[in-house]
């Protein structure tokens, strides 16, 4: 086999010359590209990974390969059952060959060793061996071939074949040999170029981390959030801004009937840049027993715009649908303007519900004496924390007894942190898979005003600065210089030449790219830039690295792509299970700038117009949100 054969990968790049609909993409990461062609790849076509627990039998693939501990145990069982046929000296002579051959499915190059890269051609029965190694094997243990093939199919089928092969060293090795001397076993193990950066995401010449993507769903209209239930079903719940939540099953199928259809109640419009709408959903952290979902959306009540957080109960007869008659309002906050509605809802590891509320809108947080965000008498511009457990009778929520401002005069007890402008997408760190380091940390992107976008690490009682500060710099000079501000600076801020509306992401804790473990991966809605931050544990500083798409050759894998639609709306991760989890990015393809000239802030007239015209609501909400003030205000 020559390198040319590696280029047989079918090219599945999607056509990007048109903009079909809004896309939801799978953020899959890159396998070290080798001469741009032959990749580490597993027999199931997936990329290799770092097993969560070290392997016991095929130890050499403990660091990075294609087997988890469970598969490793199965291989070991098979080995010992084959070795039952041997006496001690046979075991000593042939055990090592059999073990090595059986373990090749754990090799990060398994797909290549088994000729499995091209799904249209038959796979080899056994991994491809190098010539010398095969000759050795033939000399010492040729009669073991039938044992290896025995349980791969109908034993009769192989009986004649192996009988013929075992007698003739040339035919034996014609059958087992992989002619490509670099990729055959065992040379593939010792080739330095192939093994140097296994599992490492590579940097391009400018230092940008190169990734590839896989599309997993499309045809969504402004998908604002994607979550999982953590209940072993591995389904996804994808929310669209106009008020739908859809269930995607683990096999990729979408259930026809919506999980939730709130389109009749959600206040939004087809106007590009409308920040209102259905913005988030969170499931109870013990969803298997507490069958409740929480949603965050814009609503018009008595001509007043509000955001509403409400609770739904799962249908008793359909686990892929909420009981639409079960809605119970948990909290409503009046929005003085139609932008900056916040929009994040999530459960922390403490079991409490966190709600991220925007500053109420317009530019520069103009309300009151020093804006809403620094005013603890209002819920606007805050991170809230409430307890929704055991709320079936009485109040819809209670205040956790250790909320930071309890008992402070003229301060809302729900407040957990303040000084936030318009946090868009927050996440909780799962923690390092082996040490647990970082577990429970809460990261948010806070959309900036005119100059800086920032990423914050949210802690109890923290003041995140707005409107005194935007990023690291002063926005309101007077407030900024007040020594009692005592604010927490972002872990990172970037100027508007890099992007104009941050979309918070996740700490990568997957196992396919061990060198990305601990990186915070996020993006910018306006510029489409994908970015990462890596913490220096000694200094606590976060170092920025851009993420770019791998080159065509790098991503030339079945189903992989290396481009995406520019408007990064949100990120997601899937349920961690036996398998590695992945990161996802939700993107939109349509430009929104054209419609910026439409002024509709605080336009109750417009809302009425929209409400009076339900057809409009059923039009896909073309573009998405946020940062309207760039040109409108
Ligand atoms: C196997 O070999 C025997 C004898 O050489 C022959 O009769 C039989 O048909 C062969 N079976 C297959 C499946 O080729
Ligand atoms: C996925 O699973 C569902 C339910 O088991 C089934 O109805 C559907 O046909 C499956 N879809 C695919 C593409 O296999
Ligand atoms: C969602 O609800 C609206 C009315 O509330 C209805 O007109 C629409 O058909 C529903 N959509 C789906 C997909 O069920
Ligand atoms: C703080 O917010 C409350 C509630 O909106 C408002 O009544 C009060 O005037 C504000 N305080 C200042 C100093 O602006
Ligand atoms: C500084 O902030 C405190 C608390 O918000 C306030 O009471 C005080 O008047 C401020 N000082 C100045 C000089 O603005
Ligand atoms: Ca800040």
UniProtKB/TrEMBL annotation:
<keyword id="KW-1015">Disulfide bond</keyword>
<dbReference type="InterPro" id="IPR018143">
    <property type="entry name" value="Folate_rcpt-like"/>
</dbReference>
<dbReference type="InterPro" id="IPR012938">
    <property type="entry name" value="Glc/Sorbosone_DH"/>
</dbReference>
<dbReference type="Pfam" id="PF07995">
    <property type="entry name" value="GSDH"/>
</dbReference>
<keyword id="KW-0964">Secreted</keyword>
<keyword id="KW-0812">Transmembrane</keyword>
<feature type="domain" description="Folate receptor-like">
    <location>
        <begin position="46"/>
        <end position="209"/>
    </location>
</feature>
<dbReference type="GO" id="GO:0005576">
    <property type="term" value="C:extracellular region"/>
</dbReference>
<dbReference type="Pfam" id="PF03024">
    <property type="entry name" value="Folate_rec"/>
</dbReference>
<keyword id="KW-1133">Transmembrane helix</keyword>
<protein>
    <submittedName>
        <fullName>HHIP-like protein 1</fullName>
    </submittedName>
</protein>
<keyword id="KW-0325">Glycoprotein</keyword>
<feature type="transmembrane region" description="Helical">
    <location>
        <begin position="12"/>
        <end position="35"/>
    </location>
</feature>
<keyword id="KW-0472">Membrane</keyword>
<keyword id="KW-0732">Signal</keyword>
<dbReference type="InterPro" id="IPR011041">
    <property type="entry name" value="Quinoprot_gluc/sorb_DH_b-prop"/>
</dbReference>
<dbReference type="InterPro" id="IPR011042">
    <property type="entry name" value="6-blade_b-propeller_TolB-like"/>
</dbReference>
<feature type="domain" description="Glucose/Sorbosone dehydrogenase">
    <location>
        <begin position="220"/>
        <end position="534"/>
    </location>
</feature>
<comment type="similarity">
    <text>Belongs to the HHIP family.</text>
</comment>
């Amino acid at each position: 086999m020559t390198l040319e054969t590696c280029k047989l990968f079918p090219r599945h790049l999607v056509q990007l010359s048109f903009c079909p609909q809004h896309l939801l993409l799978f953020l899959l990461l890159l396998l070290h590209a080798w001469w741009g062609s032959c990749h580490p790849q597993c027999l199931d076509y997936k990329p290799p990974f770092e097993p969560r627990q070290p392997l016991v039998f095929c130890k050499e693939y403990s660091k990075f390969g294609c087997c988890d501990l469970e598969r490793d145990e199965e291989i070991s069982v098979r080995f010992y059952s084959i070795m039952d046929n041997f006496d001690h000296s046979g075991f000593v002579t042939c055990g090592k060959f059999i073990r090595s051959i059986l373990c090749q499915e754990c090799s990060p190059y398994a797909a290549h060793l088994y000729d499995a890269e091209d799904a249209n051609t038959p796979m080899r029965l056994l991994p491809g061996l190098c010539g010398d190694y095969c000759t050795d094997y033939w000399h010492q243990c040729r009669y073991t071939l039938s044992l290896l093939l025995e349980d791969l199919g109908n034993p009769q089928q192989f009986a004649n074949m192996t009988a013929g092969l075992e007698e003739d060293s040339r035919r034996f090795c014609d059958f087992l040999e992989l002619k490509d001397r670099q990729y055959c076993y065992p040379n593939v193990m010792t080739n330095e170029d192939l093994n140097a950066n296994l599992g490492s995401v590579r940097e391009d010449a400018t230092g940008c981390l190169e990734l590839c993507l896989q599309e997993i769903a499309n045809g969504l209209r402004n998908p604002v959030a994607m979550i999982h239930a953590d209940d072993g079903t591995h389904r996804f719940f994808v929310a669209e801004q106009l008020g739908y939540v859809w269930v995607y099953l683990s096999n990729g199928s979408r259930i026809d009937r919506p999980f939730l259809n709130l389109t009749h109640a959600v206040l939004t419009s087809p106007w590009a840049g409308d920040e209102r709408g259905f913005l988030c959903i969170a499931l109870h952290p013990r969803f298997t027993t507490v069958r409740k979902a929480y949603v965050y959306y814009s609503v018009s009540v008595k001509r007043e715009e509000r955001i509403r957080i409400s609770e739904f109960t799962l249908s008793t007869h359909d686990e892929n649908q909420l009981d639409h008659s079960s809605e119970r309002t948990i909290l409503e906050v009046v929005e003085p303007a139609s932008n900056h509605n916040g929009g994040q809802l999530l459960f922390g590891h403490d079991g409490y519900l966190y709600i991220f509320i925007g500053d109420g809108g317009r530019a520069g947080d103009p309300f009151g004496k020093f804006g809403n965000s620094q005013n603890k008498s209002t819920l606007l511009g805050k991170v809230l924390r409430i307890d929704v457990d055991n709320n079936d009778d009485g109040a819809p929520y209670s205040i956790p007894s250790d909320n930071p401002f309890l008992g402070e005069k003229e301060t809302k007890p729900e407040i957990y942190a303040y000084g936030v402008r318009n946090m868009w997408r927050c996440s909780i760190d799962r923690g390092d898979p082996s040490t647990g380091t970082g577990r429970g940390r809460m990261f948010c992107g806070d959309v900036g005003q005119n100059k800086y976008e920032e990423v914050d690490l949210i802690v109890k009682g923290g003041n995140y600065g707005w409107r005194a500060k935007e990023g690291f710099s002063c926005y309101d000079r007077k407030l900024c210089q007040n020594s009692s501000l005592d604010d927490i600076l972002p872990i990172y801020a970037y100027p508007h030449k890099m992007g104009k509306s941050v979309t918070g992401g996740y700490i990568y804790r997957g196992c396919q790219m061990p060198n990305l473990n601990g990186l915070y991966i996020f993006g910018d809605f306006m510029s489409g830039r994908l970015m990462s931050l890596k913490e220096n544990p000694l200094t606590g500083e976060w170092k920025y690295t851009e993420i770019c798409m791998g080159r065509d050759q790098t991503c030339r894998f079945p189903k992989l792509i290396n481009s995406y639609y520019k408007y990064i709306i949100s990120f997601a991760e899937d349920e961690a299970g036996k398998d590695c989890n992945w990161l996802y990015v939700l993107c939109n393809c349509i430009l929104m700038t054209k419609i910026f000239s439409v002024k509709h802030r605080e336009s109750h007239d417009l809302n009425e117009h929209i409400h009076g015209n339900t057809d409009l609501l059923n039009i896909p909400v073309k573009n998405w949100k946020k940062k309207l003030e760039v040109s409108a205000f």
